[in-house]
Amino acid sequence: MTHAPITITLTGAGGQIGYAALFRIAAGDLLGPDQPVALRLLEIPQGMRAAEGAALELADCAFPTLASVEIADDANVAFDGANVALLVGSRPRSAGMERGDLLAANGAIFGPQGRAINDRAADDVRVVVVGNPANTNALIAQQHAPDVPSERFTALTRLDHNRAVGLLAAEAGTPVADISGVTIWGNHSATQYPDLSHATVRGRPALDIVDASWARGPYIERVAQRGAEIIEVRGGSSVASAANAAIEHTRDWLLGTGERSAGHWTSAAVVSRGEYGVPAGLISSFPVTSAGGNWSVVEGLDIDAFSRERIDASVAELAAERDAVQELGLIP
Ligand SMILES: NC(=O)C1=CN([C@@H]2O[C@H](COP(=O)(O)OP(=O)(O)OC[C@H]3O[C@@H](n4cnc5c(N)ncnc54)[C@H](O)[C@@H]3O)[C@@H](O)[C@H]2O)C=CC1
Ligand SMILES: O=C([O-])CC(=O)C(=O)O
């Protein structure tokens, strides 16, 4: 292993998703078996002991790819030199709440962290926001980091994407490897739009294989409500699948989507440049590919009237969340 370590800062490292993500990142699942990683764990004082315990266990795994682990309760320390920032630390919702209900509780976390990233992180820093409401928290962080290119701030909709692929594969009775062209549009919320209009199953249009009224009805509801379904069944919000999605998002961003870029894509919430009529500046989920460390929105897809309405509804919610955090004084 001759590469210099890449510094990965994970916030909320003493929490559930942190615990599920740390060992996979340290084992090389994020950047491969030849790339050492230096981990920085950010916690609040109440979470420090749990983070310390995780660090002890990381040492006990003796991962060859783990160069170092440091723990901090100061964002300026934790983000110093960070190449990757995984912003997980924040409160999860409980049964009966929408993710947007967390805005007041969680929004205040992301301004100071954006500022610390602005001041301390490496020039190539890439930020993935997992903490809910993820899109708007990413916007808050981005707005506090004027010196960092805005496209370096993203939010996680890969979990929704993976759910959408998994549920389509189950309905079509086919392995997930046969599925491509699924898109999550908009907000990581109940208004998100899992879109099968360009999806294929073994190269055939998905809407020729599954019932279109299912695809445009119960399927959308099931994907959009999957987080609530997990909360109800498990008694707590998604953890391992969220950690997995955060790792896949980051890995694809840094290492590229590879052969999947030829007509295949994934979904991520990225800063809109006005694509598909999404107002510039909102952090909205799109069909994306990645090459050279940069996401690109897949352009030129036909958007029919049904999809237009769904995308517009989710984007309207993002605009309303932006206005709400502006009113709370969380963004300028
Ligand atoms: N975008 C997505 O697809 C998903 C997002 N989530 C969200 O991820 C977040 C974390 O979930 P869990 O790990 O299950 O929660 P958790 O409650 O188990 O852990 C959160 C950790 O964050 C820490 N924390 C709180 N404020 C912090 C701050 N300012 N700086 C650093 N650390 C801080 C807490 O001390 C705690 O250890 C929640 O907001 C949840 O809703 C969860 C699943 C999927
Ligand atoms: O639903 C939640 O609160 C957690 C989450 O974001 C998800 O599982 O997608």
From TrEMBL:
> Main role?
Catalyzes the reversible oxidation of malate to oxaloacetate.
Recorded catalytic activity of this chain's protein: (S)-malate + NAD(+) = oxaloacetate + NADH + H(+)
What EC class does the entry list? Answer: oxidoreductase
Keywords attached to this entry: NAD, Oxidoreductase, Tricarboxylic acid cycle
Family membership noted in the UniProt record = Belongs to the LDH/MDH superfamily. MDH type 2 family.
Supply one GO molecular-function term: L-malate dehydrogenase (NAD+) activity
Q: Start and end of every Lactate/malate dehydrogenase N-terminal domain?
A: 8-148
Q: Which amino acid positions bind substrate, per UniProt?
A: R93, R99, N132, R163
This enzyme's EC code(s): 1.1.1.37
> Residue limits of the Lactate/malate dehydrogenase C-terminal domain?
157-326
Q: Which protein, by its recorded name, is this?
A: Malate dehydrogenase
The answer to keyword NAD applying to this record is: yes
Q: Which gene encodes it?
A: mdh
Pfam families the record matches: Ldh_1_C (PF02866), Ldh_1_N (PF00056)
Q: Which InterPro entries match?
A: L-lactate/malate_DH (IPR001557), Lactate/malate_DH_C (IPR022383), Lactate/malate_DH_N (IPR001236), Lactate_DH/Glyco_Ohase_4_C (IPR015955), Malate_DH_AS (IPR001252), Malate_DH_type2 (IPR010945), NAD(P)-bd_dom_sf (IPR036291)
Name the PROSITE patterns on file.
MDH
Gene3D superfamilies associated with the record: Lactate dehydrogenase/glycoside hydrolase, family 4, C-terminal, NAD(P)-binding Rossmann-like Domain
- Residues at which NAD(+) binds: G12, A13, G14, G15, Q16, I17, G18, N106, Q113, V130, G131, N132
Active site per database record: H188 (proton acceptor)
HAMAP family to which the protein is assigned, alphabetical: Malate_dehydrog_2
> Which SUPFAM superfamilies does the record match to this protein?
LDH C-terminal domain-like, NAD(P)-binding Rossmann-fold domains
